[in-house]
Inverse folding.
């Protein structure tokens, strides 16, 4: 007996009452959607997306700190498989339509009615179900590897190649799965994305080289850790560790 595929969604809206009412309306529609979280602004939506990996985000266009267009832009760059529906007032509608370059799948005018919400979500669910079916049928040809096995192979691949330039598209072709599928199951199993795991491997190696090779130039440390660009290496190192590589080496 087959089970109905369900999808997770996040609602980003700075007005608490509107946000709660929108979630209530979605729940009342009895669609295969489960709430992955809610956010009062775009930054909260990004944080929740990184943590819970929703399939769909419904966002207001005007929010403090990070608005709906900025959120859509971030998702297009970092989570291109996540679907986005933008909610806007009449005066913002033309502005909302400009977000088409960020892959926004639909626009809903305020006040959002249950009817318009149902029509939009039902149409989107058909698309998402089709994509899921295609992905599942594609994955079955890959010797039915378990997700755990795939993650283990990905970790081994990154451990063996982190000192070189890693292309995730090339890695996905090597394993026979889409980048989106690999990223999703890797984060589900390990708690972090493949790119974050790769960065961790590289920064840990850089720390080791800095501490045990006091005469080695910082630029060379970066090269041996997988960062041929010394300026980029310093930025990534400081972002992860909090201080520059040279400061880390001389901290004691």
């Amino acid at each position: 007996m087959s089970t109905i595929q369900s999808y997770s969604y996040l609602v980003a809206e700075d007005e608490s009452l509107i946000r709660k009412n929108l979630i209530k309306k979605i729940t009342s529609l009895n669609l295969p959607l489960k709430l992955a979280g809610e956010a009062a602004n775009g930054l909260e939506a990004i944080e929740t997306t990184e943590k819970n990996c929703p399939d769909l985000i419904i966002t207001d266009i005007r929010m403090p700190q990070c608005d709906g267009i900025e959120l859509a832009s971030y998702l297009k760059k970092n989570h291109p498989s996540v679907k986005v529906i933008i909610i806007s007032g009449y005066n913002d509608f033309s502005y909302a339509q400009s977000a088409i370059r960020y892959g926004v799948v639909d626009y809903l005018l305020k006040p959002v009615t249950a009817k318009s919400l149902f029509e939009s979500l039902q149409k989107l669910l058909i698309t998402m179900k089709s994509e899921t079916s295609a992905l599942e049928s594609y994955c079955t040809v890959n010797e039915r590897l378990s997700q755990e096995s795939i993650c283990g192979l990905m970790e081994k691949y990154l451990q063996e190649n982190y000192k070189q330039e890693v292309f995730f598209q090339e890695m996905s072709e090597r394993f026979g799965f889409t980048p989106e599928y690999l990223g999703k199951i890797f984060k589900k199993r390990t708690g972090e994305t493949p790119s974050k795991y790769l960065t961790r491997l590289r920064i840990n190696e850089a720390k080791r080289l800095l501490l045990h090779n006091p005469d080695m130039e910082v630029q060379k440390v970066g090269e041996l850790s997988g960062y041929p660009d010394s300026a980029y290496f310093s930025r990534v190192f400081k972002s992860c560790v909090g201080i520059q590589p040279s400061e880390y080496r001389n901290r004691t």
Q: What stands out?
A: Residues 114-139 form the longest helix (26 residues). The beta strands are 7-12, 33-39, 56-60, 83-88, 106-109.
